[in-house]
Amino acid sequence: MIQELPKISTSLFPKSDFPNLLTLVNGQPLAYLDSAASAQKPHVATEATSMFVEHQYANVHRGVHTLSQLATDAYERVRDQIKVVLNAADRNEIIFTKGCTESVNLVAQSFARPMLRPGDEILLTELEHHSNIVPWQLVAQSTGAKVVAARIHNSGQLDLEDFKSKLNANTKIVAFTHISNALGTILPAKELTAMAHAAGATVLIDGAQSGPHAAIDVQDIGADFYVLSIHKMYGPTGVGVLYGRLNLLEAMPPYQGGGSMIRSVSFEETTFAELPAKFEAGTPNIAGVVGLGATLDYIAGKNWNRETWVSRISEIGNYEATVREYGVSLLAEIDGLIVHGDAEEMAGIISFTVKNVHPHDLGTILDQHGVAVRAGHHCCQPLMHRLGVPATARASIAAYNDLEDMDRLAAAVQSAKELFG
Amino acid sequence: MSWDLRDLYQETILDHQKHPRGKGNLPDATHSATGFNPLCGDKVTIQLRINDGKIDEIRFDGEGCAICMSSASMMTVSLQGTPVSDAEDLFQRIQKFLTANDESAAMEDIDSLGDLAALGGVRRLPVRIKCANLPWHTFNSAVHGEQNAKTE
Question: Could you tell me the CA-to-CA distances from A346 to A146, A318, A321, A350, B47 in Å, in that order?
Answer without folding.
Answer: 30, 11, 8, 9, 44
